Structures are given as C-alpha cells and as structure tokens.
Amino acid sequence: MSSEIKVWIIAEKPQGTAELIAGAKNFTDNVTALVIGPQERAEQAVRLGAGKVYWLGEAGPGMMWEDYTDTILSLLQQENPALMLVHATKRGKLLAGRLAANLGTTVLTDVMELTWEVDRFKATRRVYGGSAVRQERALTGTTIATVGSGVFTPLPEEAGRTGTIIEVPFVEPKIRIKLVEKKKRETVSVNLPAAKRIVCVGRGLARQEDLGLVEELARLLEAEMACTRPIAEGLNWMPRERYIGVSGAMVKPDLYLALGVSGQIQHMVGANQSRTIAAVNTDKAAPIFNQADYGIVGDLKKIVPALIARFKAE
Amino acid sequence: MVINNIAENTKKLGAKQTRGETRMNIIACYKIVPDEKDIQVRSDRSISIDKAEWVIGQYDLNAVEAAMQIYEAVGGKVTALSVGDRQLENSKLKKGVLSRGPQELFLVIDEALSGADTNLTARALAAAARKIGFDLIICGEGSQDLYSQQVGIQLGQILNVPTLNAVSRIVAENGKLIVERSLEDEVEVLEVSLPAVISVTTDINQPRIASMKDILAAGKKPVTQWSLADVGLNDANRRTEILYTLAPEQAERKRIILEGESEEVLDKFYELLRKAI
C-alpha cells in the first residue's frame, strides 16, 4: 500500500461507491470518492473509507447524471490521479468514455482484476465473447477503468473514519442533451449470482408454452429460472435480468441445469463457475456436453416431465 | 489530440438543420471481427485467430438497421463506415454490409489500425466522418469481439457533439431526435440536437436479411478506400498495451453423458441430480 498513488472512484449507486472504495484501498490510502446525490451519501463515503470526497451536489429535475461530466473533467485535469475507477453501469460507461476522449486516453473496460506494477495499472478482462482473458495496461497519465458489481467487496462502514468533504461547484456542460421524461422500467428483481440452483433454458426449447413445464421443475428444485441471451433478447420469452452470459449475469450455483442450451462460449462463461453442470440436449454434438458433469442426449419435452414426476414422488 | 471548436463543428456538420431540412446524412459504423467459433486454443492457452472466418459484428447490424429505418422515414442517405486492417478488403464483407441497405461504403484501411484500441478506433472514425460529413452517426452497442461499448461514446466526444449509449428507440422529427435510453432501472426520454453520435442497443430492431437481389445490387454500390494519411490522422499511437491474451483455465468436468429417454436412463439422471443438490 502506498499513500503516494491517488485513486479516484465514482458510482451512481451507494453499493457501487462502497465496492469501488474498497477496490481503491487495495492500492492506496489516498482514495477520493466523487459523489453525486444527497450530502448523506458523501458522509457515507467517508465511513466506507474515502479520505476525501468531492461532493458534486444533487442533480436537479431535468438534469442527467452525465451533465456532471465537465465538472469531473475539470477536477481530473487539475489533479491527475493515477486511476479513476468508474462503476460499469450504462451511465458510468458513458461518463468514462467521454472523460477518456477528453483526456486523450482510452478506457479499460469491465475489469475483472486490477494490479499495480512499478508505475502502471494492469487490468484483465474477457475478450472474444469469453473465449479468452486479456491483460492490458494503459500508457497514459490517468488510467480510466470501468468495474462491474461484485469485483470488489465493500468494507464495513465505520463511524470512526475521518475524511474531508469538499463541495464542488457545477461546471455548465458544453454539450447538453434535453431530458424530456424519465420512465420507471419494469424490472424483475432477481439475484441470479446468489442463486443456489439454476434451471436455464436455451433455444432448444421449441415453444414459449413449454416454459410452464420448465417452471414447474424449477419450483420443485427450488431453483431460479434463467435463460440464454436469444431467449431474453430477440424472442423476449423471459426478462433480460434472467439471461446468463458474458454480457448478462455471471452465476455460480451448486447446480446449473441447462435445458436445450447448446453451450456456446458467450453463454458458458457466465455459468462455468457452477459446482455441478447438468445438461439436456437433443444434439449429441452440442458443446454443452463437453462442459457438463452430467448429461442426457434426448428430448427435453419427454425428460422434463419425467424428472417432475420423480421429484414430486419424493 | 485534436480539440474541436463546437460552433465550427455545428456549422460544418449540421448545416442542414439550420435550413429546416429533415433529410439526414447518416453514417452507420461497423467492425469486422473473427468469428469466435473459429478461435483455436493452443496447448499453452494462447489463442489463434489465423483460421477464423471474419464476419460483420452482429451488434453493428442493429446500427445499420437503425440507420436504414430513419432513412426510410425521413429520407437522406445512409453511408456505412469501418476502420481496420486489410481484412476489410474482403469483398464478401463489403457486399454484406451494403446488401443491408447503405448506399455507399467508406473504409479506412491501414496496418496501424490492426487490433486498435477504442481510442485509436474512435479517432480514425472521427477523422473519416469529418471528411464524409454527417448529421447523425449510429454505432452498435459494442463490438462482437471485444465488447468494450466505448467507441461510439468516445467518437461523439472527439467530434464534440452530443453522444449517448444504450439507445433503444429513435424518432427523427424536425431535424432533431427524440430517443429512449434503456438504463438499468429506468428509461430516459431525451431530445438530442444534431449532429450527434448514438450507440443503439441490441434489441432496438431486428436487422433485415438481405435478399439475393440486395446482394447483387450491393456489388454495384460505390466503395471508397482511404488510408490514415488520407483522412489526416497522423498519430496512430495506442493508449494501451496488450500484455497477454489467453484462454481461461477450464474446470474439470465429469462428463457422464447418458443417451435416450428410457426409464433406467431417467432414473440414473434423476439420481445424479439428487446428489448435486
């Protein structure tokens, strides 16, 4: 650990702030959190371990979170931290990219692991749809990196921690986009990464009506339902929150039961941390069977009811 | 880095809007990528894309389709644009993108762009876009191979125009755009002045399938090929260095695979599942 390196963090949500402060503290005691929101969030960032908080204030009605980009940019240009960690939400990605373009640098995206060596940060990420892991390092002054949820574990809040909160005046954006309206999105609250058992359906499920059968099996197994990307995006048979894969949820249940899932790498990268992988597929040559502990080559419309009958008989 | 003057840009790029014209010059950006099905893993976990077939990134097809739908609604022109190395010269891929509707194709081909990072890609696209002229640039959500979801954002900022990601709906009206932006737990409705750069989601549309007629017609459409020097980009330096690219370590699996739907097979599979939970 060093107090020399300056690491900054920013996240939309308190959970992201907590995770990124913990991540930043792996490298330095000199952690600065940028907070947009009520003052209470700035105070909370201190309790979570930030030595300094730049409190940007609360976004007023009609304002976008990203309207703070120019304010953040001017702070970055004044202080040149070694690293700026941005929580990898959609807004975070837009902020990170705009900051990087202004600083003439790039963004290390969706970082899974971050190390500091000599004078540079090195970051690993997935590439080629999860077929490979790549390590890169930024060659420019401030390294900007986006980090998703779950990479760093938050530190507990401690009332005894002290830090400075500095209120930062708003810099009027050079480019403004007019916010017309905000609509609450119909989201499904599901925590797949925490699920102990998962039943996942893929394109091998011929008809949407057959989902009912799979749901019944999932209920008996006390499992969460999940799917591959085409089932959620394209067919829209299941909500997006339930798809597993490199751009979706990354899961690690005790049992992952794949029904009609071919086993493409983009999907499996999200499931291959499961303790046991079981698969049903009509295609003997499906790649899923090379990555499964147990499998049946057969028709899921016959196999699922047979399994339901057996679990019901218990 | 080139710092743009916003007023000058607006004057140069968005002149049509001030004349109250609604037709739009749209650039749809795309990237060609090695098909990950063809990626080979060597015994030392290093990977080879030497035998991979190159394809148009599937998420970029949504960008091309979004551009076509706006063009079909308000008129104007759709130009396809890509930057990269000599793989882009593949005539099947050129026809592939043009068969989906764009009237013209521009390519910036330079060995210095091989495996470019998002910053260099965005700078090359910006240089080409300035030369072509545009009211709107549409990019996909992310490239199929690296999926950084950054190029469209950085491109917009380098061009000093409004830039948005996660756009799931676009309506062009009176020389501006009303867009919906799908975030994690809300949808924003935004009014965007032009010129602008928009990155669209993968579910904004279903990309059209080209017919044989479209593919034949694509071969006759104009294609312009430039080098980095042609678009005036002299600094092709990277902002990142790749240290390694390796296949992930695989967990050992039991691979007990049963066949058929007989009662014995089903009993066995059920027992195996029972033990796993």
What's the quick description here?
The complex is a heterodimer of chains A (314) and B (277). Chain A is α/β, with parallel strands linked by helices and 314 residues long. Chain A contains eight helices and 16 strands.
Q: What do these coordinates show?
A:
- The complex is a heterodimer of chains A (314) and B (277).
- With 314 residues, chain A is an alpha/beta fold.
- Chain A folds into 2 domains: 7-167, HUPs (Rossmann fold, 3-Layer(aba) Sandwich); 192-312, Rossmann fold, CATH 3.40.50.
- In chain A, 24% of the residues lie in helices and 25% in strands.
- A 7-stranded parallel sheet of chain A has the order 5-9-4-1-2-3-10. A 5-stranded parallel sheet of chain A has the order 13-12-14-15-16. In chain A, strands 6-7-8 form a 3-stranded antiparallel sheet, with no helix packed on it.
- In chain A, helix 3 crosses helix 4 (90-103) and helix 5 (211-220) packs parallel to helix 8.
- The N and C termini of chain A lie far apart (55 Å).
- The model of chain A has no long low-confidence stretch (mean pLDDT 93).
- Chain B has 277 residues and is an alpha/beta fold.
- Chain B has 8 helices and 15 strands.
- Chain B has helices at residues 6-13, 15-18, 58-74, 91-98, 118-132, 151-158, 212-218, 263-276, and strands at residues 24-29, 32-34, 40-41, 47-48, 54-56, 76-84, 104-109, 136-139, 163-173, 176-182, 186-193, 196-200, 223-226, 240-246, 256-259.
- In chain B, strands 11-10-9-12-8-1-6-7-13 form a 9-stranded mixed sheet, with helices on both faces. A two-stranded antiparallel ribbon of chain B has the order 2-5. A two-stranded antiparallel ribbon of chain B has the order 3-4.
- The interface between A and B is large, with 85 and 80 residues.
- Strand 11 of chain A pairs antiparallel with strand 11 (186-193) of chain B.
